[in-house]
Amino acid sequence: MNHCSLLRISSASLCRPNRLFPSSAFSPCRPSAAAAFYQRQFRPLSFASTFRSLRCSAPRLSQGGDWKSPVGLASQIRTAAPVFTEFRRKIASMASVNPYKGIFTSLPKPGGGEFGKFYSLPALNDPRIDKLPYSIRILLESAIRNCDNFQVTKEDVEKIIDWKNTAPKLVEIPFKPARVLLQDFTGVPAVVDLACMRDAMNRLGSDSNKINPLVPVDLVIDHSVQVDVTRSENAVKANMELEFQRNKERFAFLKWGSNAFRNMLVVPPGSGIVHQVNLEYLGRVVFNTDGVLYPDSVVGTDSHTTMIDGLGVAGWGVGGIEAEAAMLGQPMSMVLPGVVGFKLSGHLRDGVTATDLVLTVTQMLRKHGVVGKFVEFHGDGVGKLSLADRATIANMSPEYGATMGFFPVDNVTLQYLKLTGRSDETVAMIEAYLRANNMFVDYNEPQQEREYSSSLQLDLADVEPCLSGPKRPHDRVALKDMKSDWHACLDNKVGFKGFAVPKDAQEKVAKFSFNGQPAELKHGSVVIAAITSCTNTSNPSVMLGAGLVAKKAAELGLLVKPWIKTSLAPGSGVVTKYLLQSGLQKYLNEQGFHIVGYGCTTCIGNSGDLDETVASAISENDIVAAAVLSGNRNFEGRVHALTRANYLASPPLVVAYALAGTVDIDFEKDPIGVGKDGKDVYFRDIWPTKEEVAEAVQSSVLPDMFKSTYEAITKGNPMWNQLSVPESKLYSWDSHSTYIHEPPYFKGMTMDPPGPHGVKDAYCLLNFGDSITTDHISPAGSIHKDSPAAKFLLERGVDRKDFNSYGSRRGNDEIMARGTFANIRLVNKLLNGEVGPKTVHVPTGEKLSVFDAAMKYKSEGKDTIILAGAEYGSGSSRDWAAKGPMLLGVKAVIAKSFERIHRSNLVGMGIIPLCFKAGEDADSLGLTGHERYTIDLPTNELRPGQDVTVRTDNGGVGIFRSWGHSSLRYSPIDSAVSDCPGLCVHNAVHNLPNSQFPLALATVYSFAAPTPTITSPIAAPGAAVSPSSQSGHPSSLPPHNHHSRPTITADPEHHRHSFTVTANPHHHRLSPAVITVNPTIARAATREK
Description:
Layout: E1 6-8, H1 11-15, H2 33-41, H3 48-52, E2 60-62, H4 73-93, E3 104-108, E4 114-119, H5 127-130, H6 134-145, H7 154-161, H8 163-166, E5 172-175, E6 179-183, H9 184-203, E7 217-220, H10 235-260, E8 264-267, H11 274-282, E9 286-289, E10 292-295, E11 297-300, E12 314-317, H12 320-327, E13 332-335, E14 339-345, H13 354-368, E15 374-378, H14 387-395, H15 397-400, E16 404-406, H16 411-419, H17 424-436, E17 454-459, E18 466-468, E19 476-478, H18 482-491, E20 509-514, E21 517-522, E22 526-531, H19 534-537, H20 540-556, E23 565-568, H21 573-582, H22 585-590, H23 612-621, E24 626-629, E25 645-648, H24 651-660, E26 673-674, E27 680-681, H25 683-686, H26 690-700, H27 703-711, H28 718-721, E28 749-750, E29 762-767, H29 774-777, H30 788-795, H31 813-818, E30 838-841, E31 846-849, H32 850-859, E32 864-867, H33 880-887, E33 890-895, H34 900-908, E34 912-916, E35 932-936, E36 947-962, H35 972-979, H36 996-1008, E37 1026-1027, E38 1057-1062, H37 1079-1082
Parallel strand pairs: 6-7, 6-11, 7-8, 11-12, 14-15, 14-17, 15-16, 22-23, 22-24, 24-25, 29-32, 32-33, 33-34
Antiparallel strand pairs: 1-2, 3-4, 5-13, 9-10, 18-19, 20-21, 26-27, 28-37, 29-35, 30-31, 34-36, 35-36, 36-38
């Protein structure tokens, strides 16, 4: 029997005889090799709701189960019989009682009655649990509560209990998050997917209303507002009007989705930044669902979802593959992580902010190495940090590389919950549950020692004021060293800490006229000063501290230069209320920091245009201009195309640098300006004391502010409420739309999968150095006027003023493909030092835009790969950074190392992530990118840690390490999917490794199939479908080679030189069959920040 056979079998046919499977088919017999394979790989999924919707009929045999097969049908049936026996047994046990029902107990209320029931960890009487990190206890509780020996087994629970011994072995566990969090940049593509699934259901003649999220989904619209209008009392209204004008179609689509889908809450524009809304309003800490209590947990398609960890809620960023699977009820799979214990002691000195602390922590943890790990903060110093301080530290987990930075719940957490409007009864329930389940920390009592994988410690008194930059968030610079560091950056060669400005040009002055007033810029002049980002605007101490700096400066007669683009974008309306309550907003207004809107703004590149005179002065004189922002990322080209130096700083420091007008200043020695009395004003004259900040917080931040703000949050605003949307359950696609484009995920599907095709003689599309971020790969900011995306929009009648941003266009694959590698600061070694989004078409030597070169390769039928250095894909959890390269025809990325989420997204999109051997890179191997590459993959399966040979046409040979999927479990079902591509229909037959996103898509087929079907190795419902070649592909793009499947294709006579990569042991098994994705399904498969 062919191991890649597909058997469509009704659930009923597994439980009773029928014409193809009489009762004898289920009699015990010695299993064949094929059956043994299926039994070994098979692990069923949850079908309870699915089977209820299916109608029984006879099974259908496809491929291996062929009436004309040389192997007789009876023989095939006998071979498969043991599998069906096992499957029937599994079906019978699907609804079995939780094996841990004995520890399901009541949680009494102090005055009588009960809060609800819960699974009690102490009732297990296992001493190992007492030593588990608190973050691991949340995973344990989830596994116990969801244990059915089906999706989650007792073996999974035991792995977590034995964390100390199992985590180093990189074992995999299932995890079911309580909810999913989205923002609009990622939410639009997610809702597009759901709408597309409904269309498919409708075409297949089934009930499209069955497509709904199965867990709560919260979508906050916060990424679309841009800073067009500043320094105006009317800025909020004006920017919101422009936001709605640009995004009316997107917003209407999301509003339709909020009405069309159950379990989906859409928080309208103007409400705040997603992570602050999550912290102040959406975070439950403890869920009470139908009387069952359990810890809140969340995964989000924004990498800074980790901010909620400061509230004691386990949360982290994931790619859209995982998130959409979780939305549709699939358990996430993850490697049981190591936990780094970070002990904090002492307290922060006067003048030091939480921003200074998080930049220090980020640098320490980056140096320690925490990729793929949890970080858990503990020690008496934690008890001295406010909840907002903790949230600031947790927020930047992606910047220090951890999956999350977790702060267990303590009394400070409970006080914050009360402050933000949670009811007394809710807080009492949360405290009672967490104490009863040993998940509560009391820093006033002796702490039992917990075990960690490794440890770090920091005395908070050692933290000093600092910034980070000019190009990476972990390049911390002490405030006292800022001037000398800046001069070094001017001298250094172009790199993360260098601009290579010649000595004779470093004192250049660019003079210009601004609104009739003489003005000048120098290297280091600040042209953007933005108080923005979820990282800091949720923290009253730094926000009010910024107001105090503005007040002291105004009283001394200092004002920010008018040509500096200043802005204040609070994370929620609560910030505005306490700034007004304190009386400090008027001083911020005097300095130009008017409130411009409630959203991410400058932090994600929505900084808006600079004044034309300022922009011209920068461009014409090649000035290295600076931006200072209270954000969390400062990668090249992210903040603004014209600010080559971008520094992260606390909100008070943002105001201070705006007042100084330059980063070329020593705040300890140099005056900031001259006061109204003619005397020099120094930094120390405007910096508030710790007591002044504390007094402002105490008197201005009031519980009623949170209550009134969030009571109105779902009521929307007049512009949102006036949006008219259809009430239909199916979306009416507009073929002319440049925002929402009907994706071809389910068009032209056939029952037979495409055959495999090797990666052979691929060209190098791009050759990168270190730290290529997802912003380099798929920018979220403005669309450059000379880019392929701009050309596409202009050809369709879109004016330049209406281009909007790449992030806002993520519902249109045609634009996003053109926006891939469109970052204007891209450095491609193939261009010999030239900066920009271009590359060389190797066969002709022609210099083209990356998109045009990729399309030329695709039209020629040539595959491509990418060479890169360390930290490839760092930054936002941007699925388009994997989806875009796939659309460009990239088959593999060979790098020194990968960022966790991006690595998983690459695998999800069928792009092979390969890692150089330790101590090697492209340069050391003599790879220039002008070679042609053939990747040799094993014939059976590719395992993490396994060496893979890559051959070049110039005689090069090397050994590389293959990287699998870091955050998703590769379960036996997944293994069977990858090893037997013909088995899994929801994978469009071997489209996506790990099958997590396709498992979500399987819902379409399982619900809609006219006959009961199986979509995994006799495991999950679905239909045998895969996209037909070229069907539904945008006509403006060359058709993708749907038959492109990496297999061993090396010709030893032709390829005399090879190099080898090795599989990452953190990751999951991949087979040659699943390495490359079928694009018409894959385009649904990624979503991001």
